[in-house]
Design goal:
about 325 residues; 3-stranded antiparallel β-sheet; binds ribulose-1,5-diphosphate; 7-stranded mixed β-sheet
């Protein structure tokens, strides 16, 4: 798929979810590199940096996107003699990112499943591959549990989630977002995904996640986050904030109605931040960690040096 098509699909959310966005961007970069027509290495580098920046600019919150782009672009930072050798190295980097990302989801499922026990009631929010894999793996392990899945206004990603759970035969109650606190006393644990995890262990995920965490905290319900290591945000070490995407109001209120209400402004932030105090465990492919260990993941597993990302978001070598 062309880079511009992929960028458009990420913007319009036809491709969505932090892991899928990262893999789609890397696949598009790989295809763009392979199809590069000229033999001029300087031109090749310039063009790859241009399209990498274009992909990074599509959605601001999911740190998986700049991290994935950076991880593969890093393969071009050494001296490269020809476009052909650059293309080969880059193609290998892209394939290795995509398979590592898929493997990470699988591994998170294995680790996360151990936190689900017979008779549990688990609540999930939005549509997270990583969180769902924990549920699917527990089900494959023969654990008998049920799920509450939220609707997820305004994007209705909950519909994707209940389809997966239904296909697996996992009994699920589908609820509106505002019913979470009402049902929390029946819930044993919450499992959600993440778009980003900052150095202090704060978790950025679909809007409403932090309210769910508050309700879980109040009810003393355990709150688990399933997140691949490449969703941890190295730039937060330097004090940078993770930008919260705010989308068009028309996703919440149709324009036909909005135009009859001239004094009304619709606000549509699509992610929020859950402070680390409300997170019991972050399940990564390297194991389950308390949020306070986020720094270790960034330093030891993500392998980014401060110099790697000094400067503006998504710096490309
Ligand atoms: C998706 C969302 C998901 C995370 C994690 O938001 O918040 O919980 O991206 O998903 P949107 P995954 O629908 O706006 O992209 O585990 O699949 O990476």
């Amino acid at each position: 798929m062309l880079v511009t098509d992929t960028a458009e699909k990420i913007k319009t959310m036809e491709i969505r979810g932090a892991g899928r966005i990262a893999r789609a961007a890397v696949a598009a970069l790989g295809a763009h590199s392979a199809a590069f027509p000229s033999r001029d290495i300087a031109e090749y580098r310039k063009e790859m940096s241009r399209v990498a920046a274009l992909l990074i600019a599509t959605r601001p919150t999911a740190v998986s996107l700049p991290n994935a782009v950076h991880l593969v672009m890093r393969s071009l930072s050494t001296e490269l003699l020809s476009v052909a050798s650059a293309q080969e190295i880059f193609s290998r980097a892209c394939q290795s990112f995509i398979s590592a990302s898929e493997h990470a989801v699988h591994r998170i499922g294995e680790v996360g499943a151990r936190h689900i026990r017979d008779g549990d009631v688990v609540l999930t929010h939005c549509n997270s591959e990583a969180a769902l894999e924990c549920l699917l793996q527990a089900h494959r392990n023969g654990v008998s549990f049920s799920v509450f899945a939220t609707e997820v206004r305004p994007g209705n990603q909950g519909l994707l989630t209940i389809r997966v759970l239904n296909d697996a035969g996992i009994p699920t109650s589908y609820i509106v977002d505002s019913a979470v606190r009402y049902f929390m006393k029946e819930v044993d644990r919450v499992i959600v995904g993440a778009d980003a995890v900052s150095v202090n262990g704060a978790v950025v995920n679909k809007i409403g996640t932090s309210q769910i965490a508050l309700a879980a905290n109040e009810a003393r319900t355990r709150f688990l986050v399933a997140a691949e290591t490449y969703k941890f945000a190295p730039r937060t070490i330097l004090g940078e904030f993770i930008e919260i995407e705010e989308r068009e109001g028309s996703e919440v209120l149709p324009e036909s109605i909005a135009k009859t209400l001239p004094f009304i402004t619709v606000r549509n932030p699509v992610f929020d931040v859950t402070p680390p105090e409300y997170v019991d465990l972050i399940v990564t492919e390297e194991g389950a960690i308390p949020p306070q260990m986020a720094y270790i993941i960034i330093r030891d597993y993500l392998g980014w040096e401060i110099g790697d990302f000094h400067g503006q978001a998504g710096k490309i070598p």
